[in-house]
Specification:
79% of the residues lie in helices and 0% in strands. The chain is an all-alpha fold and 208 residues long.
Length: 208
């Protein structure tokens, strides 16, 4: 029975992801700060469950096909989905009412620090790596995540958290905004580098 616990934790994280997006979507200016704090807590809990289910699966030797597919799927959906929200006008307009006292500002760079092209880079990387991994596995070649991929996941998660803390504190602290901007740009750079390392690793495969 205990061997099913990692999968159950993954399912719980999937549910948390849905709740997380609900708080990002069903927000209003009056309760914006509180809802961002709740979303931040949900995001952190989901991240901790990701670490936990991976640790348990390895410790108990309970890796499963379900976990190998759904676990990274949930990670990608939560991260990419958050960045999509942060660059969307609907989300930014409400955030602007809270952070700028109703000013008519719809500038994602000023409000969340996330620009649409950054989201494109993140999603393009996931599509590309998924395609490469699928091709490799179809030929019986293992293609696990490398160090760059793991660093990429950490920087993306940190950036999402930094954006939410900045929004939850209604942009009052300059050092949080600076930390947010550094985290976002670091994420973009690391994402591109991660994509490059995967392409180099797959170079031989793609030529055959």
């Amino acid at each position: 029975m205990y061997r099913h616990i990692p999968n159950l934790i993954t399912i719980a994280r999937l549910i948390l992801t849905v709740v997380f997006f609900a708080f990002l979507h069903l927000h209003d200016a009056a309760n914006f700060s509180r809802q961002m704090w709740i979303a931040f807590v949900i995001f952190v809990v989901a991240g901790l469950t990701d670490i936990l289910d991976g640790y348990l699966a390895r410790t108990w030797k309970a890796e499963s096909a379900f976990g190998r597919v759904v676990d990274p799927f949930v990670d990608k959906i939560m991260i990419c989905g958050a960045f999509i929200f942060f660059s969307s006008n609907a989300f930014i307009d409400i955030a602007a009412q809270k952070l700028f006292s109703g000013a008519a500002i719809s500038n994602s760079a000023a409000i969340t620090g996330v620009l649409p092209w950054m989201v494109v880079v993140l999603i393009a990387r996931e599509f590309l790596i998924t395609g490469i991994r699928g091709l490799a596995e179809s030929r019986g070649i293992a293609f696990p995540a490398d160090w760059a991929g793991k660093i990429k996941m950490f920087t993306q998660a940190f950036a999402v958290g930094a954006v939410m803390v900045h929004l939850a504190t209604t942009g009052q602290y300059r050092w949080i905004r600076i930390t947010r901007d550094i985290a976002i740009w670091t994420t973009v750079v690391v994402t591109v580098l991660s994509m490059t390392t995967y392409i180099l690793r797959s170079n031989k495969l793609l030529r055959t």
